[in-house]
Amino acid sequence: MSPPTGDPSAADGGLSLRDIGVRFGGLVALEGVSLQVRPGRVVGVIGPNGAGKTTLFNVVCGFVKPSTGSMTVDGRPFQPRPHRLNADGIARTLQGVGLFDHLTVVENVMAGATNEARTGFFAGLLALPGSDREERRLREFAMELLAELGVAAYARAYPQTLPYAVRKRIAVARALAARPRLMLLDEPAGGLGHDDIQELGALIRGLPARGGLNCAVMLVEHHMDLVMSVCDEINVLDFGRLIAHGTPAEVKANPKVLEAYLGADVEEAAA
Ligand SMILES: Nc1ncnc2c1ncn2[C@@H]1O[C@H](COP(=O)(O)OP(=O)(O)OP(=O)(O)O)[C@@H](O)[C@H]1O
Question: Which PROSITE patterns match (predicted)?
Answer without folding.
Answer: ABC_TRANSPORTER_2 (PS50893)
